[in-house]
Amino acid sequence: MNMSVSAYYDDIYHWKDYKQESEDVLSWIRRYQPEAKTLLDVACGTGGHMVFFQEAMEEVVGLDLDPPSLEVARKKMPGVSLIQGDMRAFDLGRRFDALTCLFSAIGYVHDYGELEQSLRCFAAHLEPGGVLVLEGWMSPEDMKPDGVWMHLVDQPELKIARLNTIQIQGNVSSMTLHHLIGTPEGVRYAAQDHRLVLFEREEYRAAIRNAGLTLVDEPDGLMKRNTFVAQASSGP
Question: For the chain, which domains are there?
Fold first, then answer.
């Protein structure tokens, strides 16, 4: 993520109800693992959910590929372990009672093979009986590429306009997010290119199964996107 945008990420997503989403995620975890005490948030970004997870868990750890996002998260949560790493291939040398991967971050893998690779990595970091909550990206039938999207930030000393369209090629959605960022120091432009794979729901299910996890629920989702709750085997 471009540093000039990372610093304003939370301002841009001011509309997102991280508190309610975190409560929903924790309720799903508690349903299947009532004694969960440790949680790993993969692709944690600036820590929007982790801020609330840490209030409910004895220990939370965050992992993200983007150093500027982790720097923002560290300012919110001094003392919390935040690690730079790739969700497709990381090894923390330990396991957790719960693992989350939210806000469609899993859509950034390049193909189904990398989806399976990531899910296997997640499973390897779950304690027996541990719970995974995965919020996927949209499926092909859910994506509406026509139209223009815009988010606005209107604060006394910060104005942001972010616009984008979406292009679909095969099962890949691509977008360039165009930002105009205005502060008392001036107006800047920043662009971000995003590429997310449109996996079918059955592909998510298959990747979860092939990782050795049991799919236990498919709730409506935090943003009406593909959401899955899975559990690691409690046996040897």
Answer: 3-139+200-231 (3.40.50.150), 140-197 (2.20.130.10)
